[in-house]
Write a structure and sequence with these properties.
Helices cover 68% and strands 0% of the residues. It is built from four helices and no strands. Helix 2 (21-40) packs antiparallel against helix 3, helix 2 packs parallel to helix 4 (71-94) and helix 3 (47-67) runs antiparallel to helix 4 (71-94). The protein is elongated, with a radius of gyration of 17 Å.
Length: 103
């Protein structure tokens, strides 16, 4: 019974009982950017927003995967990376990062 009392409280992102503020921040940023990129990708005239947020979401998610320490962090990062990737590629298909300004 004493062993059950010594366990740290269950955390949503840190399964090892240690705080991971940088990793948790990268997870949150990647999920928000992925959601914005995914939703705006379905509107043709928002291709600048979807492509840039998708690209930034891919970069933050990739760095988060590189330094992540728990499975739950990696799971959330994969969800954010997938949404960012879809938003980025649809944004590129609708007009790209510069919207025809470069060529």
């Amino acid at each position: 019974m004493a062993q059950a009392m010594d366990r740290p409280p269950i955390s949503l992102l840190a399964t090892d009982g240690k705080p991971h503020p940088l990793q948790d921040t990268l997870v949150a940023v990647t999920l928000v950017l992925g959601a914005v990129a995914f939703v705006t990708a379905f509107f043709h005239n928002l291709h600048l927003l979807s492509s840039w947020t998708g690209l930034i979401g891919i970069v933050t998610g990739a760095y988060g995967q590189f330094i992540s320490e728990t499975t739950r962090e990696r799971f959330a990062l994969i969800i954010g990376l997938g949404a960012s990737g879809i938003g980025f590629f649809l944004g590129m298909a609708h007009g790209g990062l510069f919207g025809g300004l470069m060529g």
